[in-house]
Each structure stands twice: as C-alpha cells, then as structure tokens.
Amino acid sequence: MKTQIKTMQSLPSFTVKQRIDRLKKLAKVIKLKQDEIITAINQDFSHRSTHESLLAEIMVCLDEIKYTIKHVKQWVRPKTWHSDWKFYPSKCSISPQPKGVVGIMAPWNYPFNLVIGPLIAAISAGNRVMIKPSEITPKTAELTKTLLAEVFAEDEVFVVLGDVEVANQFSCLPLDHILFTGSTQVGKIIMHNASENLTPLTLELGGKSPVLIDDNYSLKKAAKSIVGGKWFNAGQTCLAPDYILLKKSRQADLVQALKKEIQASFPSPQDNPDYTSVVNPNHHQRLNQLLGGIEDQKIHVIGGATDKGQKILPTLVLDPPLSHPIMKNEIFGPILPIISSENLDASIDFINQRDKPLTLYLFSNNNNTIQRIRERTQSGSLSINETLVHFAQKNLPFGGVGMSGMGSYHGYQGFVSMSHMKSVYYQSRLNFNHMVRAPLTNIKEKFIDLINH
After folding, report:
1. Domains of the chain by residue range
2. Which member of 155, 241, 294, 328 lies 3.0 to 4.6 Å from 211 by CB, making a disulfide possible if both were Cys?
3. Which residues of 1-37 are buried (b: 16+ CB within 10 A; e: fewer)?
4. pLDDT tens digits, residue range 103-156?
5. How far apart are CA 260 and CA 251, in angstroms?
6. Residues catalogued as catalytic
7. Percentage helix, strand, coil, to 5, in the chain?
8. Domain 210-393 class?
9. Structural domain 2-205+402-424, CATH architecture
C-alpha cells in the first residue's frame, strides 16, 4: 500500500474534463451492474430488502453523480473579490486545489453507498483515491472492486481488501485526507493513527440520535415517519432514530400508533421480503443481549413470537433504566426505547446532558418549539417532521459534531472537504504598502494614523 500511495501521489490530479468523464462512466457501470450490486448486498446480509438497496445504495449514488456533474465546473472556478479598502485596488481569491490522494474507509451497513458517495466527492475535487471497504460485507467489497476497475485505472482508484489489521495499516498511511464512516470507538483509533502523519480527517460516526415529539403533534403522523426511518435496513443506519422522548401521558397512544404502523409496513416480518436481516450472527447476538436485564413487561415485540434466521423483530422498550447499556450505547438495530419526559425543557436537558448526536429528530408544528430546539441543542443535523430523508439532500452537508463526528460532505460541501481551498492574494500595480514599512517617517506616521481611524 505504501508503494501504491507514493505512485499515486507522484501523478497529476484529474482535470475537470477527466472528473466528469470518470463520473459519467461510473454512473453507466452502476446502472449496468445494478442487479449484481443488489444481489451481493443481499447475500452479505443473508437478506436485504431489494427496495431498500435500490433506494439507498443505487438511487442516492446516481443522483449524487448527476448533481456533481452538473455543478463541478462552477465549483472549481476561483472565487475572487476586492481586498480590504486599505489595500485597494488589490484582490483576494480562493482557488480550490485537489488534496492529492484521499483514503476512504467504508462501513458495512450501506456497503456500496458509503464507498461511492465519498468517492464522488473525492473525484469531484480532482483527487486520486484509495478505498478500504468493510470486511463484514465481503461479496459487496469484491464486487465494488471489480466494478471500479471498469472505470478507473489502479493508479486512479485503488481498492484494498482485507481484515481489521489491513484497515489499521490503511489508516496509518501518509494519505492527504481520510474519510472514515463507522463507530465512535473505531473513529478514535483512526484519528490516533492519522495523527502520526497529520492527515486531515472527515469522521462520520454515529451515536444515539433522539426523537422529540411535542405535546400537540399527531402521533399517527410521527409513528409513520419513525417506523419508516427506524426499521429501514432493520435500524442498521447511523441516522436511525435511537430513542424517543415524549410525555408519559402520550406513551401508551404512541405505542399503539407505532404497532399499527409496523404491522402495516412489515406484516409477518420474519418472512417479509421488505424487512431486512441483521447483518451477521455476531450483531444478532449483540442486539439480543442488549435486552438483557430489562423487565419483560417493558418490552413489546411486534410481528411474531420469535425471530427467524438473522432477523430480529421490531421491538419497543418502555422506560428502560437510563444506566442500562441500551441507553448508553448506539443500538444500531430494530430496537427502539421510548423515554418519558415531563416537558420540553426536560427533554432538552436530557439531550444536552449526553453526547451530541448525529441527528436530532423533532416532530412539531410550533414555530416557537422548533426555534427553541434549534437554538438550545447541538447535533450534526436537525430534521423536522421527517426521518432519514435529509441524508439524500445533495445541497445539504452531512456530518456530525463532537462524538458523532467531524467534517461533512455531500454536494458542494463534499467538494470543499476534499479540496484545499487555497488563499490567493493579488497585489495591484498601484501599491501603497511601503507607506507602513520602515523607515517610519513623519509622513508615514500620519498616513498610518489616517488609515487607523
């Protein structure tokens, strides 16, 4: 890998024409290989909903490519403006420049999307790219490598397959930027390794993304959106709602609304082709153990008596102990706690006393409530009256804050993250700077006094 990165760093960056050409070829190959991609992901998960793969892995990537091709010529143009009046008529400029070789470390939960999305951003900025897909989804990783080889030469995009040790070595490479998507715990390791080379990072982590439902919002509407966001990909989404906060008096009605919506969306989930499996036995075991120590009457399993294969049935947990692991760790599965809260202020305090989430979901039509949540909480993003779909907004940066990550990408922000935005100063022929330089005569002192007021 070290030899490969040196080779890639010695080569010129992509021209704008090459960037557009490669992205067009990438879109063409994705369309041609669409069924193979969906099949590979399905095999890695033992079962992944075809519609979920089509929407989250294929459609989102193709839309991002189309948007990037449309705008990249505009993005690369230097932005120029007049300098401060004291230096008039000189000019200042920001000139985007490729960073060099970008490393992408992708997770298993969206094993195609979270390779291709960052790749689009890196290519849009003119970089060459090294990729480490997740070893947990090996068939998708192999197919991704084969697919990208049809579009890029090895010295343009290089895919490294391997286990955790390979990933560790990858993050130690002297790359010019690393984009890592994964858990906070692993993100700390990546950041430590990257620090040896002062490699800049974009860390897309996760955390416990809360849902806050205000007192007057329709529980039927909230349930429809929550079920669509929580049980998409069986909850194996960094943006998935992790727990709900609402008044105790509304809890029973919310449970009924959620049950009704789950049953309508995923009848007989054990055999339902739209209901995705947990990715592997280890994660299946982890999620089942997460329910240990919680009173049976607090656990509501919807859709059947037992799990089947690697599927875990949609599960609601009412007011688990706040010290329990289910409220300490990101769930990343089809289990949803519902926490009683006295009022809006108590909910805000509850959120603020914990790590800053990747996303906060608010269900409210009250402008004052929306403003209070917007101003008094910190999160990577705030989504109002809908779940997950903000990820697909190409002109809206995606990223975390604090323990949920650093940096962001998507659309123009992806281009900026993968570029060095070089500052350029143009001194005009008419130059008065000598008036503030030694030797400081009386005339110069008067000039300095003049411009200092």
Report:
1. 2-205+402-424, 210-393
2. 241
3. beebbeebeeeeebeeeebbebbeebbebbeebbeeb
4. 999 999 999 999 999 999 999 999 999 999 999 999 999 999 999 999 999 999
5. 14
6. 204, 238
7. 45, 15, 35
8. alpha beta
9. 3-Layer(aba) Sandwich (3.40)
